[in-house]
Structure to design on (242 residues):
């Protein structure tokens, strides 16, 4: 037996002034209403209603219980309205992780527009190239390069990216332009690092894939820092097309 059984019937009897009217209001039989009220009174060990052939009135205990029941029902109604509102209106904290260069160039403007349209949303944006654990760290969205094999999250490809080797005109004028991937070994390469380590630069063609281990005097975990260093003529940089 539910501890809430009889609550609504009791309130309906009081609000509608009788058993018959309460039964019509909630679409049940009068006998059902009477049975539920009797069970409620037995469970509480108190008479809630004075019954006569002409009218129904509250006992002193019933008056207090009615007020408390009303507050409970109002809270339940408010909870339902609040849930309905949440389903139709974006609200809460949106926690996102993304690579710094992609995030700063593309995601920040998009999220700014999003928040202007959804003023009840809060945005928490972290820039990281590491493989984030969505569940453990509580992220709603993680954008990163490469495939994930998590079984508890939804994976979706949003874009395909190419990497390019680039340099400033000043650097190329001084040091020359590499013609082949292995020519990069003769140049100062600005390297992206993750957890203190850098990866070889990869090149692909329709027939093969090639990796070149490069060296240089500038390392950073920030794509923006690498781009800025390349613009200043410090060396060659290997960055995604976004």
């Amino acid at each position: 037996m539910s501890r809430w059984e009889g609550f609504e019937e009791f309130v309906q009897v009081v609000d509608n002034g009788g058993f018959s009217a309460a039964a019509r209001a909630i679409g049940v039989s009068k006998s059902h209403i009477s049975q539920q009220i009797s069970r409620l009174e037995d469970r509480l060990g108190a008479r809630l209603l004075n019954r006569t052939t002409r009218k129904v009135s509250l006992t002193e205990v019933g008056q207090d219980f009615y007020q408390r029941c009303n507050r409970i029902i109002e809270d339940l109604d408010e909870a339902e309205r609040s849930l309905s509102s949440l389903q139709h209106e974006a609200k809460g904290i949106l926690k996102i992780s993304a690579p710094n260069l992609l995030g700063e160039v593309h995601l920040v403007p998009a999220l700014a527009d999003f928040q202007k349209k959804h003023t009840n949303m809060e945005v928490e944006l972290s820039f990281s190239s590491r493989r984030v654990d969505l569940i453990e760290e509580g992220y709603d969205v993680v954008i990163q390069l490469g495939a994930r094999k998590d079984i508890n999250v939804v994976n979706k490809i949003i874009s395909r990216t190419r990497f390019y080797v680039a340099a400033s005109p000043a650097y190329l004028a001084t040091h020359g332009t590499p013609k082949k991937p292995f020519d990069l070994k003769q140049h100062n390469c600005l390297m992206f690092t993750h957890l203190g380590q850098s990866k070889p630069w990869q090149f692909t063609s329709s027939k093969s894939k090639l990796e070149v281990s490069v060296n240089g005097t500038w390392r950073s975990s920030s794509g923006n820092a690498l781009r800025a260093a390349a613009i200043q003529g410090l060396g060659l940089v290997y960055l995604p097309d976004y």
